[in-house]
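Run log, item B.
One chain of 131 residues. Sequence copied directly from the ordering sheet:
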Amino acid sequence: MRFKSDLLYAVRTLRRNPAFTVVAGLTLALGIGANTAIFSLVDAVLLRPLPYPDPQQLVNVKDDLRGLHLTDVGMSLPELQDLSDRAGIFDDIFATWPVSGNPTGSGRPERVRPGVPIPWPPGVHQQRSAN
């Protein structure tokens, strides 16, 4: 019985002050929406396994030019061909094409450099289904 009277009191109070009601409703909606968005991102990036049969076996091979003191300079097409032909330890090889962007949000824009995967050799790779 006490809950019903408390609920009726809350409704009467909110009805008397519509500006507060709108601000409180928008605050709740924004908080719930932000929480949902953050959880969706964490779920997609951290909690779900990668869509590959053995994600723990994925490796990232980088090339450095030590004489010029340069790191992660990428590989030329002949180097990728050699890696594909001679390194029998890999089932598949993907090259990544660097792209860059400046995503903005609530803060300052920040330069990011994700990679776009390209099957190697081009046009030959057939995607396998994850078991």
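Observations after the first pass:
- The chain has two domains: 2-47, 55-120.
- Confidence is low (pLDDT under 50) at residues 123-131.
Flagged for discussion on Thursday.
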